[in-house]
Amino acid sequence: MSNILKYVAKRLLLLVLVLAIVVTITFVLSHVIPGDPARLYAGPHARSDQIERARIELGLNKPLWEQYALFWMGLLSGNLGMSIHTRRPVTLDLLDYFPATVELTTVAMTITVILGILLGIASALHKDKAPDHASRLFALSGVAMPTFWLGILAQLVIGQMLGILPISGRVDPMIGLIYPTQKITGLLIVDSLITGNIPAFLSALTHIILPALTLAFGTLAIVSRMMRALMLDVLDKDYIRTAKSLGLPDRLVVYKYAMRNALIPVITVIGLSFGYTLGGAFLVETVFDWPGLGRYTTDSIVTLDYPAILGVVLLTSFVYVLVNLAVDLLYAYLNPKIRY
Amino acid sequence: MPVSRRFLIAVVLIVIVIVAGYIGQNYYSRLVEISQREKVLIVAADDGEPITLDPAVQYSTDSARIVRIAYDKLLDYKPGTVTEFVPDLAESWDVSPDGLAYTFHLRQGVKFHDGTPFDATAVEYSFERLKTMGMGASWFIVGPVDTVKVVDTYTVTFTLTDVYTDFLHRIAAGWGFYIVSPTAFKAQATSDDPWAEKWAYDHIVGSGPYKLVEWMHHDHITLAKNDDYWKGWAGKHIEQVIVKEVKETTTQRLLLEKGDVDISYAMSIPDLLELKDNPDIDAVIEPSFSALYIFIHCKRAPLDDVRVRQAVSYAYDYNAAVQTALKETGKQMRGPLPESIWGWDPNAPYYTTKLDKAKQLMAEAGYPNGVDRTMVYTYPSGDEPKRIAGEVLKVSLANIGIKVELKGLVWAEQAAEAKNPDTAPDFFSLYWWPDYADPIDYLYGMFHTSMQGEAGYNWAYYSNPEVDKMLDTATVTPDATKRMDMYKELQKILVEEAPSLYVFEYPYTMGMRKWVKGFVYNPLFIGTFNVYEMYKELS
Amino acid sequence: MTFIKDFRSEHRADLTELSFSLHMIRHSPLTILGMGLVSGLVVLAVLAPFIIPYPEDAYVSMHPESALMPVSFQHLFGTDEMGRDLFSRSIYGTRISLQVGVVVIAVAAIIGVVLGGVAGYFGGVIDEAIMRITDAFLSIPGLVLALAVAATLGPGLNNAMAAIAVTWWPWYSRLVRGQVLEIKQELYIEAARSMGGGKLYIIFKHIMPNTLAPIIINASMDVGFAILTAASLGFLGLGAQPPAPEWGLMISTGRKYMPTRWWYTTFPGLMIFLSVLGFNLLGDGLRDLLDPRIRRKGRVKR
Question: How many CB atoms lie under 10 A from the CB of residue A48?
């Protein structure tokens, strides 16, 4: 038991160190900006005295190392600076937009994991037959397909030509107005369900389908191929052959033994693909007008809102590192060989 | 096989969810009673995100759209006209015989959103605020005024520095003089921020028909009716407005076609032209007073030589720009003013594409083989017409040996660059639409020496004392014929000196579902809507 | 005659390997597809200015009268809003994208190799320091980091390339470090046995061939992904600027003219897809070829 604790402690320490470096990278980036951050902060209609006031407010007249120290102090007290565009603390903005991205990525990852694993198992079991070839084709196209392109095509074909699913936003604006959802977790689907707001729930559900599927497409392909390879590897192993030769039913063999053993390394792949999904979410949100971090970032890029952009970088890194830590711990727990 | 069965079940489940969602959404859409849906106006705009809600700062359609329906002015234009006024917060007004003093008799019984009463002190406060902050539209409203005096609770007098015949236009202009609640604003003032600028960015306390409900940045802004609005709510009116930011013209179009939004603002011209055949949609394409200018930096070599500027003007392929950007909905500008404006001179000279003339002028100026350095054209990235105009510039000037590089920047960055003559680009693209319908509005703001740099929009850095004198005189000349003569002369000079390319006039475009009624188009109020007079008929 | 005979016997082992490689390739249709796609793209990129039907449309030209025309024999991919031939522009775009992909990965690989090599070779504190920095860069989701860097540097293709290179080098650093560590183990054993001959020489002779293989495999697949990332940045407005015929930029512009002018977004997207696919398959095939474990099995990916 203490081994696990040691492992966890070691990982946590590393995590802190790594995040500290990420913070430093962010700080460096924030000072490589071309143009005058004070002038940008003061806005397009600002007078010179307002620009000077902004410069002092942002602490830009202090020496670099002092700014770095202040940056850290601000971070630790939860202050990520002020968004140039919304004139609010970036932290508040992030809190507003974060849940939407969480919702989207969670649904997408769920689709990825479930469908990916199922597809992978199916191709492994039907190796070199039709389902396998189909899934191979699917995987190859999934990896090569530009996410934003797929999103646009989905909007075009499913949204417009077939007209069965909505293509923009998180909820129908009319429904959002007349049946507003009380904000509990910030996840529309969950909140509307909890408060019994059925119109909003159904609207939110239909609105998330296309973006989530688009987002899941690429990683789904990767996970399914991984699963297939690992299943094949495991199925080839001696103990499986033994089990089969002993007359154990196929279904038992596949699910109880093969799948479980293949799942363990797949977990690491899922952890890694989460980062890819986060990045892809940014593109998907732009295409589908989804009000999450991605939209916030691309809008911030357009308005040169650097504090916002860097706030997003910090947040996503933090989340990504945590998710990977959870995945690694899970992996260590499941795989007795790794524990140390 | 067990796995394929599971797979099948998963697929079936997904299909069920999709179908259920589709049915459910539409069913519940219908469940929302028609009478309720009729009261909500949903607008999709590519500039749906306001830069600010502060009436003293706002100077673009994104903000004006909201400010116009949340705050009131002293006067307004009679719907559909650009020359007649109707009372708004001022019930009546008189002008002194010498034309220098305007006295407004204010409406009584009007309350601000915070319940405090409207009176002359509110007018005084709002004016002081606009003047001291000195932003947005203040330049044309504050300039002519000498003093503002509160005569009594409901009377206020403006004394001007000279006989500005267009003063009422400036007061009625949609960009400018809105009355705010002094109580609310003063309560938010601090020693650092005496005019509550920080707070006014995202708060509204006016006397207008709509109040701010919610502003979700980068997504939408919602307003709902002000029950105490002085005009009352008898009859049919929109009660709630949602403005959604939808950047992509394709998405706007799809939303409009599906009926998910009522108005779609700034769809692309090709899309609008296609929607003309749609029986449910009004594809509004109206002539406007808006035009595209490309300023030429008059203080930077070789563009400081008027011959080079003229060469550029002769080289530019106006037809290509109009055709590509606007199809048949626009036309080349003839002179520095749009045609529909009073004061436009049909006999004014203008440039047409004459490549040999251009080359000849370049040779005369000493650049027979073109210019070495690459020049820069800036435009706000994402703005199609400006980008196309820039691409046309690049191709056109290549013919006279000038290389042009296109730079797509954020508007904030583009404007910031232009405010400094050293960083301002060689070619700066700008739309100009009128603050009020008079040539002075255009020509003063863009070509007067005092409007260079931070003060205004003279980012061609053009300075001609003769032009300045005429501009200053024209505003205070009551005699219409004399003014007309001056305008003619100004137009002639501004074409000959070519401080700017006068590219094209572009139409006002909007897509609107036919069930929206009561919209009145006014070329002085582009991008905004007279929501209070509008209503929907869904059955 | 004897020369050939001697050559053959001297290099027997190498030749067997070579013929085995060719055998593997021949029996893997997907690898052939990959190689075909990639070579096709390279050919297109090199010959673009000479083979496209409307070379002037690649950059500076406009024909408003033929704007937004659908697919036809004169315009295989239709035309854009300025009347430019999209087929020519898409083909010319191969130049830009391929250049971006190769340069970015080359730069990232070089940085990664140097840093990873140093970390692996010296070990200790230097190793820890470099690896922590690598980890930090890897903690920021790729596209997010590329976006942030590109946004900071400003729009433009060169800035986009720098931004993408910044996100890619950590992978190579990790890869090379792992390789170096493995080899170091063997080397120490070897050095202990030998008379302590030039360690540097041995490292060079052993590290190079062994690390080269994984780098090449990863690099070939990564070129495809780099192209994809560059297109994503172009789509978001960072990266190539108009009028450059970059695929991502064309999709972003073309989006404004959908849905009736479907060709504008479809074909550039198709080009991206084929590029990524080609490099992916190539990398996969190379892995089968070069990875000794798979080679020995002789099994080929069909």
Answer: 11
The C-alpha of C162 sits at a distance from chain A's nearest C-alpha, in angstroms, of: 13
Does A141 contact chain C (CB < 8 Å)? yes
Chain B residues with CB-CB distance to C60 below 8 A: 394-395, 398
pLDDT tens for each residue of C82-123: 888 889 899 999 999 999 999 999 999 999 988 888 888 778
Residues contacting B58, CB < 8 A, separation 6+ = B50, B51, B52, B64, B67, B136, B175
Chain C CB contacts of A304 below 8 Å: 151
pLDDT tens digits for C212-221?
778 888 898 8
A157 touches chain C (CB under 8 A): no
Q: Which residues of C touch A296 (CB under 8 A)?
A: none
> For residue C64, is the peptide bond before it cis, meaning its omega torsion is within 30 degrees of 0?
no
pLDDT at B461: 93
Which tokens sit at C163?
Answer: 């931004």
Is the CB of residue B478 less than 8 Å from the CB of residue B305? Answer: no
Segments of C7-160 assigned E as strands: none
- How far does Cα B100 stand from its chain's mean position? 29
With an 8 Å Cβ cutoff, are C251 and A149 in contact?
A: yes
Judge whether A97 and A293 are in contact, CB under 8 Å: yes
- CA quadruple B86, B87, B91, B94: dihedral sign: negative
Question: pLDDT at residue A340 above 50?
Answer: no
Pick from C83, C242, C258: CB nearest B250 = C258
From the candidates C139, C169, C252, which should be mutated to test the interface with A, based on the most A CB atoms within 10 A? C139
Question: B244 - beta bridge partners?
Answer: B44, B220
Could you tell me if B151 lies within 8 Å of chain A, comparing CB atoms?
A: no
Pairing of strands B155-160, B145-152: antiparallel
What percent of chain C lies above the pLDDT cut of 70? 85
Does the beta-carbon distance from B324 to C82 stay under 8 Å? yes
Lowest mean pLDDT, pick from B29-33, B472-476, C253-257: B29-33
| Chain A CB within 8 Å of residue B363 CB | no
Say what the pTM is.
0.81
Q: Which two tokens stand for residue A183?
A: 């904000």
Torsion angles phi and psi, residue C213, rounded to 5:
-60, -55
Rounded distance between C-alpha atoms, residue C108 and residue C134, angstroms: 12
By Cβ distance, the residue of C62, C68, C259 closest to B395 is C62
Inter-chain residue contact B4 with A122, CB threshold 8 Å: yes
For chain A, say whether B263 makes contact (Cβ under 8 Å): no
To the nearest whole Å, the CA of C157 is away from the closest chain B CA by: 12
Contacts of B470 (CB under 8 A, 6+ apart): B486, B489, B490
> What span, in angstroms and rounded, lies between the C-alpha atoms of B14 and A208?
13
Tell me what pLDDT residue B78 has.
Answer: 87
- On whether the CB atoms of residues C147 and A278 are closer than 8 A, the answer is no
**Chain A with chain B: Cβ pairs closer than 8 A:** 148
CA angle C234, C239, C240 (to 5 degrees): 85
The token duo for B277 is: 């055949």
Neighbours of chain A (3+ CB pairs under 8 A): B, C
Determine the pLDDT at residue A16. Answer: 86
| pLDDT confidence of residue B6 | 63
Q: Do B218 and A160 touch (CB under 8 A)?
A: no
Q: How confident is the model at residue B292 (pLDDT cuts 50, 70, 90)?
A: very high
Burial of A308-338, coded b for 16+ CB within 10 Å and e otherwise, reads bbbbbbbbbbbbbbebbbebbeebbeeeeee
From the list A128, A45, C251, the residue with the least C-alpha distance to B175 is A45
Taking CB atoms and an 8 Å limit, are A121 and B3 in contact across chains? Answer: yes
B270 touches chain C (CB under 8 A): yes
